[in-house]
Specification:
It is a single chain. By secondary structure, this protein is mainly alpha-helical. The protein has a domain of 226 residues. The longest helix has 46 residues. The relative contact order is 0.14.
Length: 384
Amino acid sequence: MRDQARQLNIQILRALAATLVVIGHAFHDMQALKGAAEAAPTWLDRLNWGWGVDVFFVISGFIMFFTSADGFGRPGAARVFVTRRLIRIAPLYWATTTLLIAGAAVAPQLLNVPIGSGSHVLASYLFIPDLRPNGEVRPVMALGWTLNYEMFFYVFFALALLLPLRRGLAALAVAFAALVAVGQFGPWGVTQIDFWTSPLLLEFLAGAVIGALMRGGARLNPAPAVAIAVVCLALGLAGGASASAADSLLRAFRYGLPAVGLVAAGALAPNARPSRAVLALAFLGDASYALYLIHPYAIRPLRVAWQAAIGDALPSSLFVVVCLGLAIALAVGLHLGFERPATRRLNALAGAAGLLARAAGSTGSAADAAAALVASRELQSQRG
């Protein structure tokens, strides 16, 4: 983003969203550790930690619009957008999916649901919604269901980039509103149609609208921004259990509206001061995608080890704290050791390919192509 201080606000919200999801899954596994003699779950167990996913969706729409707004109507902008998004999302997801498949061959007892057929595995890698063996619409790596929505939004956003800004955003709004309207007359009995017409699409759209408002100069003063954020955070966490597919529109309002309010408060609030704490949270926001994908690899093995080695010797609630710490440590290592260097390398290669294509297309000259390659290598060395 052009406004780095505002980027800190959004990065902190990304860290919050990922942390909420991790805590929710840790609480779920904590229940398996509780003995029959233990008391009923505390009120913390009953909070809607999964609401972090809705916050992620709104943030995604916001970032896509705000960082790509200058590309609307420009030749090549859609191609660049799709390339960068694939580079950002696909490698880590494919790597963790492959790791899960390999792990299933070694320790299948750690899986809640079997891997499934070859076609299901292929659909998972291609971000196509498909039924798992237990009937859920989830990929091999269950958390990837959110990425199936992400990729769907990328396609429509790339098409919107072919138009001027206002027309592109309007077309995006009409398309998503129409898809959600179609979904309300379902279920249609086709997995992909039922999945891609969910009201969750409106959360991405709302994020894009927030980006447009920010670009247009909308701002919130500190006091109302904090008040809105606190109220929306409370409403989101108190939203209750996930609604069923039949209640999908109700879910969009119950979870989506607080998520939209929270992201709007963060995006439109005054600049965050880059203190050590803020920068640390922003860094966790950088690693939030890794945290989202890797945390099951921390929670499930830890639960097995905890049950075998500790049992009831320590409070089961401590398990949640340890899960969060371990998941963050793994995520930071994955972010620094794989995600960041892979993204940098692939972006450099994509830049080199683009330079070569433009040089060959404009003059057909080998000298121009060579010059483009040299320029791309210089760019790569600067990024490294």
